[in-house]
Amino acid sequence: PFHKSKGQHILKNPLLIDSIIQKSGIKPTDFILEIGPGTGNLTKKLLEAGKSVIAVEVDPRMVLELQRRFQGTPFSSRLKVIQGDVLKCELPYFDICVANIPYQISSPLTFKLLSHRPLFRCAVIMFQREFAMRLVAQPGDTLYCRLSVNTQLLARVSHLLKVGRNNFRPPPKVDSSVVRIEPRKPLPPVNFKEWDGLVRICFNRKNKTLGSIFRQKTVLSLLEKNYKTLQALQLSHEGSSDDTEMALAVSALGDTLEDLSMDVDDGRDDEEMEVEDGNAKGSEFKEKVLNVLKQGDFEERRSSKLTQTEFMFLLSLFNKAGIHFS
Ligand code: SAM
């Protein structure tokens, strides 16, 4: 009866559900968003803990089962079920999101939540273990990647619980973890498109030095193109974008990050990197870029060890020199 393609793995361990509820810190006044309620095991305890639950479920059979389960109980007036794909529907207001989600939507869902306004208090979500470890990874950890840096720019993330595959029916092929995501308030005054543009380049070859990354011809020509476009437009492109623009950029991000397959350094040497640019104009621009790296002592550094603050500093140095990533 369960659809593998919809990631249907039902939580069957009541103690685990209690522990998720307890760790999520739900208040009796909370509007709770649940994604993928399935047969409602988690939903029931969310209804006991909060004021109301809005549950988004794509499978009409599950929607029916859920309605049948709570029909005629005191819960039914506090539960609203929306049938549809959570990635496609407009989310309602919520204080907190608690969910055991289908893992294939992890990345786009995370950034859809983070782009939702007004910002919620926190989200407590079950993810595939490796995805969870990427979310919380710190500089120097093997799993530190573009996903870690981008999420941690917008939110504080912490690992709450390790969950073995046998807590689900049917058991998935991988272990899971519950993670807490708390949006930063206020959000940092960073132009998110610029930020992601820089981070994407840096993590393309995350174990190479920034010096060698920014000597790549493809990177230089991209940056030079941006540079020229901006100069032509005579735009002053300083500082931060407004909140709406930020939200748009954040939600678009989910589509560009592919869960788990993203920013893997395949260890290939970039042939192109060694090719010197003969063109005089080109090397002038190259000097400009390398000077920025020198200013902040970044040339010999590697993205795999850079902190949020250092990425922010690097971006501000680039922007000050008129070099942009979007
Ligand atoms: N919350 C239930 C539990 O813990 O027992 C079920 C969790 S199961 C991992 C994921 C649920 O998400 C399934 O009921 C599935 O039908 C639903 N689902 C899958 N893709 C979805 C989507 N794009 N939007 C909303 N729900 C989805």
Please explain how this structure is put together.
By secondary structure, the chain is of the alpha/beta class. 42% of the residues lie in helices and 15% in strands. The strands form two sheets. A seven-stranded mixed β-sheet has the order 4-3-2-5-6-9-7, sandwiched between helices. A two-stranded antiparallel sheet has the order 1-8. Helix 2 links the parallel strand 2 and strand 3. The chain is elongated, with a radius of gyration of 22 Å. The N and C termini lie far apart (46 Å). Bound molecules: S-adenosylmethionine. The site of S-adenosylmethionine has 23 residues, from strand 1, helix 2 and strand 3. S-adenosylmethionine binds next to strand 1, helix 2 and strand 3.
- Rounded mean pLDDT is 90
> Biggest sheet: strands, sense, closure?
7 strands, mixed
Strand order in the largest sheet: 4-3-2-5-6-9-7
Helicity, as a percent range: 40-55%
List all distinct small molecules, including ions and cofactors, that are bound in this structure. Answer: S-adenosylmethionine
How is this fold's topology laid out?
Layout: E1 10-11, H1 14-24, E2 31-35, H2 41-49, E3 52-57, H3 60-70, E4 79-83, E5 96-100, H4 106-114, E6 122-128, H5 129-136, H6 146-154, E7 155-163, E8 168-169, E9 176-183, H7 192-204, H8 210-213, H9 217-233, H10 243-256, H11 271-274, H12 280-295, H13 308-320
Parallel strand pairs: 2-3, 2-5, 3-4, 5-6
Antiparallel strand pairs: 1-8, 6-9, 7-9
This protein binds S-adenosylmethionine (SAM).
The site of S-adenosylmethionine has 23 residues, from strand 1, helix 2 and strand 3.
